[in-house]
Every structure is written in structure tokens, then in C-alpha cells.
Amino acid sequence: MSSFTVEADRFQTPTPDHLEAGRVVIAVVDGEITGVERAGTEAARALAEASADHRVLGDNQVLTPGFIDLHLHAPQWQQNGTALDLPLDEWLFTYTFPLEASFADRAVAEAVYPDLVATLLGHGTTTAAYLSSVHDEATAILAETCVAQGQRAFVGRVAMDHPTGTPDFYRDHDAVSGIDASRRSITDIAAIDAGRGLVRPIITPRFAPACTDEMLAGLGRLAEETGTLVQTHCSESDWEHNYAFERFGTSDTEALDAFGLLREHTLLAHANHVRPSDIDLIAERGAVIAHCPISNAYFANAVLPLPDALARGARVGLATDIGAGVRVGVFQQIHDAVTFSRIRQDGVDARKDPDARGVPDAAIDTVTGFWLATAGAAEAAGLPVGLLEPGRRFDAVVFDLDAPGGVIRHLALDDEARRFEKLVRLAGPHDIAEVWVDGVSVHRR
Questions:
Q1: Distance in angstroms (rounded) separating the CA atoms of residues 443 and 428
Q2: Which of 72, 337, 342, 364 is the most exposed place for a label (fewest CB within 10 A)?
Q3: How many other C-beta atoms can be found within 10 angstroms of the C-beta atom of residue 194?
């Protein structure tokens, strides 16, 4: 049994509107947080004295929960940030599908995935929901890589079989073979990490334009049969949103529901164009909007109505959407989510009167943004992380607020709220001193 205690200044957001800050002592046993006490108290001293391994972080270091990326395309790591001038459908056929097809060669996966996972851990991403490619072997290699490097992850073999929505050189042969391959992948990934259970399979229909009705319905039945989570795209852009109405006569959200894919904890990437009735349905089913601020700026043709989604009870978390995401770590997406919400509230066309320029009450603050990347995302995905409190797993990031080369500066008037805001807006991977997943140190500067 491994156990330790750590004393540190802790920042966390248990709700979208509440920051908890202060020095605490945290006890960890076999990866589970078994006690948290305010530093300087008798209870805290008792925790520390009972531990054979007591660690004390410096005054200029802070401890936060690990960050959760709810949507990224692992094979697109090599092209991240490129060709973003193209519309989504052209980008896929011109660049992305040919790149993903190259993962038929296991050597490609063996070269790319260790670098991807290590880089994400170095950016504080302790949990990631990965879309792989259509290839069984490459998908297994991705899962093995996450296990080897100690990252918590969902890993999904992408299913796609539509004859016009996918290229002939990169798709499942047909719906039956794609569903069978997804079933095999669920079994394979579950076996890869049968011991710790950090890495879990996830059923992954790419999105409606890439899947036939038979594929979508079959994967819905597979999810019901196995209890495996689902991830896909939903109403990302004008093109994808309108495509659903043209093909199904309903919204993308309603179509996914009809196929049995809108389930508890289903991860819906983007969802910028969802209607109020769609948000209500997402909330009713317990599904999740994976909000991708940066990639949405390039491909979505709109800004997610984030406060509306939260107010209507929908689960929401943040995501990078590598390879359209540009910024690698989901921690950096917090500031982007705040920024784009402010732009939506203020508007962009100065020729309009201020009252008609933006959307009232559309902005969020850094506390809400941080919650979306930690506690909110954890609850959305059904994971026992996101907060440093008893009963949760110890996924955590240590930030060094005076790291060499860093840009965070302190003033005498800085209280905890100002230190937190500076952290969220200014910190980068160079400020991360250590990363923990399930009580194990997986990255150290």
C-alpha cells in the first residue's frame, strides 16, 4: 500500500461560481484522497505526523486538480494547427482523412502516440477523451501508451462507413464490420488496463455525415448492450447542423437520440448550433457538451451559448479538439473560453449600436472556466476526480508561480482571488513543476 501526505496552497472550484483557496494537508492512500485538513490545525498536524512520506510545497507553488480534455483526435497530433483556413468538410478530405489513414501502419502509431501523451501530461492534462482512427491495432497502441505513461483516458476506435461522407481509402468496409471492430476494440482496451482501470474504451461514431443509419443504430445497440460510454460530434458547424435536417428531418441531437447514442455521459463535441430544445434533451439524457473554444473559432461558425447550456441543466466540460485546437493543453483553453464568451457578450460589429451588438449575459469568468476543466468535466464524464477532496482520486498539478522564464508577477495587494486569476490567464507548461495521476507522479519538470 502506497501512502503519502502533501501540504500545499490549493486552488479548486467545486461549483461554477465558487473558488476554494487556502493551505491544506492532503492524505493519499493508493491513489485515493482519504483526508483533507486546513494547514496549521491539530487535525492537519495529525495527518502529517501519521505519514512516513510527508511533502511540503513552497509558498510560491500551488496545487490544483488535474485538467480534463473531453475531446481530441489523437491521429491529428502531427497536423495540429494547420490549414485552418479551409471549411471543415474540405479540411477533413484534403488533410485529415489521408493523415488518419496512415495509422494503418503500426509504426506510425508507435512514433506519434508516445509523444502526444507525454506532451499532454506535461501540459497538466491528466485525463483525455481520445478519438483514434478506424484501425484496431493503432487504437490498442494508443491505449497501451496511456497505460504506460499513466494518463487517465477514454480511447475510442472511430467508426465510419458512409460512402459519400468518407473517402474510399479510409472507412469501415460496411456497418457490420465497423460494429464488429468496435466491439473487439472495447474488449481489447478493457483487457489492456484490467488492473487499474485508468484507461477505458468508448464507442465512437465519428459523426452523422460519416456513418450510415445502420452503423449509428448498431453502435447505439452496442452501447446499450455493453454499458460503454459514447463520444461523437454534434451540430459543430452550419454544414453539420444543416446536414442532419436534410438527411434525418431532425436536429443532430434528436437524430443521435433516435439511434440510442444520446446516453448518460455521452460526449458531444462542439454543439455550437444546438437549439434550446436540443439543450433540454441533452440535459434530460445526462449527455455532455465538450466545449472546444479555439477550434470553434475556425470551424464552428458560431460561439457556444455556454451560459444558456448551463442554465438549462446541461453538463459541459472543456476540450482542445486537437488537431484543430491549436493550443495543446486544456488548461490554456480556460482563458480562451472566457475570452470568446466576452466577445459573444460584447459583439463584434462596431457599426451596430451597443445594445444590439452582442448577447446579454453571455460572458463567463475564470472561476467558471476553471470549473469546466476540472470538477465540471469530471462530473460530466462520471469520473471520481476534478476536486482534491476525500473520496476522489489524486489527480493533481503543481504550478510554480515563480518558475524561471515565467511571466506571473506578484504584488503586495494580490489576494488569493488575484493569484488564481493570474494563474489561469498567464501560466503555461513551463510553470508546471509536477503532474500526478491516481496518486502517481507522471511528469516532473
A1: 15
A2: 342
A3: 9
Cβ(22)–Cβ(9) under 8 Å?
yes
pLDDT at 140: 98
SS (H, E, C) the chain: CCEEEEEEEEEEEEECCEEEEEEEEEEEECCEEEEEEECCCHHHHHHHHCCCCEEECCCCEEEEECEEEEEEEHHHHHHCCCCCCCCHHHHHHHHHHHHHHHHHCHHHHHHHHHHHHHHHHHCCEEEEEEECCCCHHHHHHHHHHHHHHCCEEEEECEECCCCCCCCCCCCCCCHHHHHHHHHHHHHHHHHHCCCCCCEEECEEECCHHHCCHHHHHHHHHHHHHHCCCEEEEECCCHHHHHHHHHHHCCCHHHHHHHCCCCCCCCEEEECCCCCHHHHHHHHHHCCEEEECHHHHHHHCCCCCCHHHHHHCCCEEEECCCCCCCCCCCHHHHHHHHHHHHHHHHHCCCCCCCHHHHCCCCCCCCHHHHHHHHCHHHHHHHCCCCCCCCCCCECCEEEEECCCCCCCCCCCCCCCHHHHHHHHHHHCCHHHEEEEEECCEEEEEC
Query: What pTM value is reported for the model?
Result: 0.97
Q: Which residues contact 157 (CB under 8 A, 6 or more apart)?
A: 132, 133, 134, 135, 136, 139, 181, 182, 185, 204
The ranges of the chain annotated as CATH 2.30.40.10 are 3-65+387-444
Strand 432-437 relative to strand 440-444, pairing: antiparallel
Determine the Cα angle at 82 with ends 81 and 83, to 5°.
135
What phi and psi values does residue 45 have, to the nearest 5 degrees? Answer: -65, -40
- CATH entry 3.60.21.10 includes domain 73-381: no
Quote the pLDDT of residue 81.
86
pLDDT in tens, 192-248: 998 888 999 999 999 999 999 999 999 999 999 999 999 999 999 999 999 999 999
pLDDT digits (tens, 9 = 90+) for 281-292: 999 999 999 999
Beta bridge pairs of residue 117: none
What are the residue ranges in the chain where pLDDT is below 50? none
Cα 251 to Cα 235: distance, rounded to the nearest angstrom: 8
Locate 123 and state its grid cell. Answer: 501540459
The pLDDT value given to residue 1: 62
Q: In the chain, which segments carry CATH 3.20.20.140?
A: 73-381
